[in-house]
Amino acid sequence: MSKPKKESKTNLYSEIIGAIFRKAYVPGVTRVPFERGDLDKAAEERSVRLPKNLGDTIYSFKYRNSLPASIQDTAAEGFEWAIYGIGRSKYEFRLERPLSIVPRANQLVVKIPDATPEIIQAHALGDEQALLAKVRYNRLVDVFLGITASSLQNHLRTTVKDIGQIEIDELYVGLDRHGCQYVVPVQAKGGKDKHGRQQTEQDIACCREKFSDLICRPVSAQFISANKIAMFELALQDGEIRVVSEEHYELVSSASITPADLALYAGRRRD
Known about the structure:
By secondary structure, the protein is an alpha/beta fold. Helix content is about 30%, strand content about 35%. The protein folds into two domains: about 10-95; about 110-270, no CATH class. It has helices at about 10-25, 35-45, 55-65, 70, 120-125, 130-135, 140-145, 195-210, 260-270; strands at about 30-35, 80-85, 90-95, 110-115, 150-160, 165-175, 180-190, 215, 220-225, 230-235, 240-250. The strands form two sheets. Strands 4, 5, 6, 7, 8, 9, 10 and 11 form an eight-stranded mixed beta sheet that branches. The chain has a three-stranded antiparallel beta sheet with strand order 1-3-2.
């Protein structure tokens, strides 16, 4: 006799988060608050085995997986539900317009001499850490934003007023030729992870709170392929996250960059 299949994490998380939403949702509302303790209650009421890492339940739906259909089906046309932090151990389901930050298929690709150390190349995986390493070693933040930038901290976990705990994949500080100083929060997306609106919103809030004298320039970095990276500068305008600029970089050997490539790039600079 075969053993019953072990319930997947995604299904387990979906059942718990769906129960929390259904208990508090009222048709027509755009925000549904809940607290971390509600995860325990929902699991206990439904006799569901509680995940060891409660935080991963919320994190998975904030950044990695879509909320279950039982929740999204209640959203008005053109909107979707997302989970936001609103304080320490406090959250809310929030109805918002979808945000899609996806590399454009017809974007010109700029070839960059690959400065990634060979040992990193040999062991890098197609995930967030590999992406952050390639961005750092090839100084793509400098190239993209036109400033001199240095990594201040990797995977910064901190708390922000009225939001709670957040995590920034990598935080850079930099300056330009005029002496203006910048803080650059970078969100890296590899594998199945997707860039959400709230990540940039909370990065901006963090920079305003902790680096109020610096100019905040949020960046999203995404793998297109193993050596091709899309970079986006983002900004908050009229309550919406907008793409300020987008560039695609391909990390190649110096010999792969032809005179024709260089002439093309020179033409762009004159424009």
